[in-house]
Amino acid sequence: MTSVVITNAERAARAELAWRDAEGRLRAAAFVPLVIDGAVAAALPFSESAVVASLADVGTATLAFTDSRMAWKGWSPLVVEVAVEVTADRTGEWTWTGALDQEVRKHPPARLLVDTAIQRREHWWYVPRWVVLLRPRGAAAAVARRQGPHDGLLVTAAGDAPSVRPVAVDRWDATEVEITPLAEATAWPPAGTTAALLFGHDFAIPDQERSSAVRLRGVLDGRVLSVEEREGSLDLPLPGLLRSLRRHRDLERACRRALAAYDASPSAAAT
Description:
- The chain is an alpha+beta fold.
- It has helices at residues 2-11, 49-55, 99-106, 108-114, 117-122, 241-263, 266-270; strands at 15-20, 26-31, 34-36, 39-45, 60-65, 78-89, 129-136, 141-142, 152-156, 163-169, 176-181, 193-203, 211-221, 224-233.
- The protein has seven helices and 14 strands.
- Strands 1, 2, 3, 4, 5, 6, 7 and 8 form an eight-stranded antiparallel β-sheet that branches.
- The longest helix is centred in the C-terminal third of the chain and has 23 residues, at 241-263.
């Protein structure tokens, strides 16, 4: 089954990862899946250092492929438990693994920043990455494909790695959110209240320049999530040249700040 997971990583434009952080909070994020050293990988810019910090010591997570948009033929929806390994690549060695070619092929915003040597020199702050290797533990399981960005992923605690279920969502802006599994045979959490995270994400097609994510945390009772905490929005940022330039500037500033903090940390001195 590992070959199926790798095939998906090669052909998908997006994958999702769900985990529990050191405090036990359910977390989820979408990323551009790559293949590095025979493993599924995320090469996250240093602007994502806060996300990486919550992943650093988890050990185990759940990898999901549920979004078929812009995926190549041969993609299939699945979930699999994975072992997580996080490495700081300050010098950009990941660009020599073949992963750079994968990223610029799949992700047009990266193509504008690091496709050529000149671009990589100009945007040097985007070259260092947190490399997150995700190695399958056990067999992958088939799941339903999300029908569009308004479908979501229901994440609940289940052993070492969270359980991830693709679901239809009636209203993301509601306080009591009704959820319906996208596959009738989907196993559901046992009766009673359960802590849960409802995760959704979207991106502009075909340029992928704009993206969004929403996370609703609360208590699941049957098929209703009572929302206690809301983060983000599913609405895509508005298009426009000035807004695009502002997003670029904000990304550069965030990467520079995170790199400066990393360079000043004891972990950087030890490498």
